[in-house]
From TrEMBL:
<protein>
    <recommendedName>
        <fullName>Transposase</fullName>
    </recommendedName>
</protein>
<feature type="region of interest" description="Disordered">
    <location>
        <begin position="1"/>
        <end position="20"/>
    </location>
</feature>
Length: 67
């Protein structure tokens, strides 16, 4: 088995890699992690979906206001 030739200036990213899509995905993942680490969202076990949705909405607004 021989060594694969280096790609040089042709790039080394995988086929089908979209840089802009990755940036958006990374931002969404970081936002979800910040929501998980907020105090209100992961400790709530509400019986009603609208109460839990409200809790997540308030946590999201707090993240949006604070940089």
């Amino acid at each position: 088995m021989g060594r694969q030739p280096s790609r040089g200036s042709r790039g080394g990213g995988p086929a089908g890699f979209d840089k802009e899509m990755y940036k958006c995905r990374n931002e969404v993942e970081r936002t979800i992690n910040r929501l998980k680490h907020s105090r209100a969202a992961p400790t709530r076990y509400d019986n009603r979906a609208y109460v839990f949705h409200g809790t997540l909405t308030v946590a999201s607004i707090r993240l949006w206001i604070r940089p």
